[in-house]
Amino acid sequence: MYKFIPILKSPLWGGEKIATYKQIATDRRQIGESWELSGVEGDVSVVAEGPDAGKTLTELLARDKERLLGNRNYERFGTEFPLLIKFIDAREDLSIQVHPDDRLAWERHRSKGKTEMWYVVAADEGAHLRSGFTRQVTPAEYEKSVADDTITDLLTDHEVRPGDVFFLPAGRIHSIGAGSFIAEIQQTSNITYRIYDFNRRDA
Q: Catalytic residue positions?
């Protein structure tokens, strides 16, 4: 069994739950994401302890091959670990976004697409997630709603509770809402098309 060093991210919308939940001693604030297992280039997980401490997930796959990934998965993915597993703590709403499927991601970025799944670990009162349009929307309606800040009115908004599960195929518009603390399991991809971000500006 391997334990990996979490890769912590501090976006504008990040909260304060992850360090406590994972019992991480850190002075870092506003942790929005903790990548638990990642083969994403530039953010590959590193073994935390034991005889393989310091080795990357990629190095383990190169050495152990199908013994680590299984025969069929190794035939399909080789030394590219197929999943990215993370915790997300949203103090504020995340951007309205969409991810490409495998075909489009390969054409544009030479990357895998991004289908994902959310498991709600904890939820503040009023916590919510957005997934998909409420109805058929024309391209003109879509463009107008982004321009006049009404895009959220067109999206299905779900109040969430611990234990809820959402499947989001690539191509579905979505957003993680304020107060949601989730585990996200997704394809190994970090490609996000941000549609609308509530007119926020970073530092």
A: 194
